[in-house]
Specification:
Structural class: alpha/beta
Strand content: 15-25%
CATH topology of the largest domain: Rossmann fold
Number of domains: 2
Shape: globular
Strand order of the largest sheet: 3-2-1-4-5-6-7
CATH superfamily of the largest domain: Glycogen Phosphorylase B
CATH class of the largest domain: Alpha Beta
CATH architecture of the largest domain: 3-Layer(aba) Sandwich
Radius of gyration: 21 Å
Length: 379
């Protein structure tokens, strides 16, 4: 059968590639066409556009690239109807994907599966009516979403979390020791603090300078930046002037050997927890006071990090918008650096609870089994 997938960022590329591998196990004749990244291309199929051509974040960048965004959307819609897949699989990225879902639903009978559901419980809850209308099956990777969607009379599939799969597979296959990792990357013997400053240039510009400045307070530790896919080293050059190291294509390797981390909110916060690395969530935003006011009055959730949302409590400290100040970053990371600090030990214990809530590995396989079974029933 033929599967068309759409992702809009690096994490989507990772999870979609694992889903594609799982689909191939139950449908050996599977053909893929996609808007995606290098990991999806490695699985096989035809890439129409790289997600780098889609990913714009923030009001001004989106406004400046509206023509490109609409052009990509138009291309995607035409390409799906022309290729006539047996299923359209949308992966997160709701701003783009919900528009695609509406169009495909109106103009075809192609079943639409949403893998990694839109986070409408945090913002834009009104989108539930669009999901009910345009999405045939919703696949959730966050356990608390089941209750949320049930409250809207919409049944979804909780299939576990693909981050659990990815980290589990990595830990089983990676035998690199700490010494080998340091030698391979010209690192000293100092304990490592990982800096995961986001996957887009706007995020990196906003967060990385504060992260690096905070780490100057702790010269006995070495900061190592996780280079974002698609962001070349020249972009990071300004931030490397003070001797920080950068590692490309090895975020999991970095987390495995890190003592602590400063992490921009997103999937990376959950991955850091799965590696059991104590972290501070850092998310600077333009017009931070306005964002803080909007968060207080309009956001439906108390937290921005997946770790805290899954736990239902503040497991990791979140420095968002107006709270993302140098003094706060210094203070919060400082609480986690001593090996026997109460904050560190409590966080590690809470990580175990989060991991238990998420359940066992196998999300990609469970999703693939359901998708292929539904398509075979349809045929």
């Amino acid at each position: 059968m033929k599967y068309y997938l759409i992702v809009g960022e690096a994490s989507g590329d990772l999870h979609a590639s694992n889903l594609m591998k799982a689909i191939k196990k139950v449908d050996e004749a599977a053909e893929f066409r996609f808007f995606g990244g290098d990991l999806m291309s490695a699985v096989g199929g035809e890439r129409v556009k790289h997600y780098r051509d889609l990913a714009y974040m923030g009001f001004i960048p989106v406004l400046l690239h509206l023509r490109t965004i609409f052009s990509n959307m138009s291309l995607c819609k035409r390409d799906i109807l022309s290729w006539r897949p047996d299923a359209l699989i949308l992966v997160d990225y709701p701003g783009f994907n919900m528009s695609i879902a509406e169009y495909v639903n109106k103009n075809s009978d192609i079943p639409i599966y949403y893998y990694i559901s839109p986070k409408i419980w945090a913002w834009k809850e009104y989108r539930i009516k669009n999901i009910k209308r345009d999405v045939d099956e919703l696949f959730s990777i966050l356990p608390f979403e089941v209750e949320f969607f049930a409250g809207h009379n919409y049944k979804i599939h909780y299939i576990g979390n693909p981050c659990v799969d990815a980290v589990d597979a990595f830990l089983k296959s990676d035998n690199e020791s700490g010494d080998e990792f340091r030698r391979a990357n010209n690192l000293s013997e100092k304990p490592i603090v990982a800096l995961l400053a986001g996957s887009r240039k706007q995020e990196i510009k906003a967060n990385l300078p504060l992260m690096l400045q905070a780490m100057k307070e702790y010269p006995q530790y070495q900061p190592v930046i996780a280079g974002a896919p698609g962001i070349d080293k020249e972009f990071y050059a300004t931030y490397l002037a003070d001797g920080a190291h950068i590692l490309y294509g090895g975020t999991y390797r970095l987390l495995k050997h890190s003592h602590a981390a400063l992490v921009t909110s997103g999937t990376a916060t959950l991955e850091t927890a799965l590696f059991r690395v104590p972290q501070v969530v850092c998310y600077a935003t333009p017009m931070s006071r306005l964002y803080s006011w909007l968060k207080k009055h309009f956001l439906k959730v108390k937290f921005v990090s997946l770790v805290n949302l899954i736990a239902g409590s503040e497991v990791v400290r979140e420095l968002v918008a107006a709270d993302m100040r140098l003094a706060n970053v210094k203070s919060e990371i400082g609480k986690l650096l001593p090996g026997d600090s109460p904050c560190r030990l409590t966080m590690l214990k809470e990580y175990d609870r989060v991991i238990e809530i998420l359940g066992e590995a196998g999300a990609s396989e469970r999703a693939a089994d359901i998708m292929v079974a539904l398509l075979r029933e349809r045929k």
